[in-house]
């Protein structure tokens, strides 16, 4: 299954680059034909059109997609695209860039996981000056879905992600190892000292934290 990204601006293309490097098949929706041509020449599959239209989302394969990432700089377009994807195309995993923090709640009401750029940057700045270790909740992205950072300190956690039963139900989206960060997959073996960024529900994250960090339980 592919991941569909709506918007070929800086945010959308950065997400596409990271996901493509991780081996994910990508389809990009872009309304500007000139930009779409440039992106296609860079090796991406592109659907030209307005991401808020059901026929365009359908052409991009949203109905069968692993996820839809909506990353245009226009909240009205993003909201409509999220509504259509959720209500008409039954897309279960919709992630939306929210440009104005005041709009976060509206996006959550349509069933999308909303990421506020302002909140994300503020969070990054905050934890950059925090001592390393087990990090508390970074951002509340919907009612029971949270993002946390956890330092791997338990020797038993040094195994492939897919073989750690305590991580079932969570999604590790980033591993920071030393000065570098990368998107892991199921075969990625965690190491002592890694800092992992995890999405999940509160109870699942509690189990993950306990399994990764010695003394966290």
Automatic annotation (TrEMBL):
Any GO MF annotation of the entry: potassium ion transmembrane transporter activity
Entry GO CC: plasma membrane
Keywords: Ion transport, NAD, Potassium, Potassium transport, Transport
PROSITE patterns according to UniProt: RCK_C, RCK_N
Transmembrane segments: none
Coiled-coil boundaries: none
UniProt xrefs under Gene3D superfamilies: NAD(P)-binding Rossmann-like Domain (3.40.50.720), Regulator of K+ conductance, C-terminal domain (3.30.70.1450)
RCK C-terminal domain span: 135-214
Pfam families: TrkA_C (PF02080), TrkA_N (PF02254)
InterPro entries per UniProt: K_uptake_TrkA, NAD(P)-bd_dom_sf, RCK_C, RCK_C_sf, RCK_N, Trk_Ktr_HKT_K-transport
Residues of the RCK N-terminal domain: 1-117
Full protein name: RCK C-terminal domain-containing protein
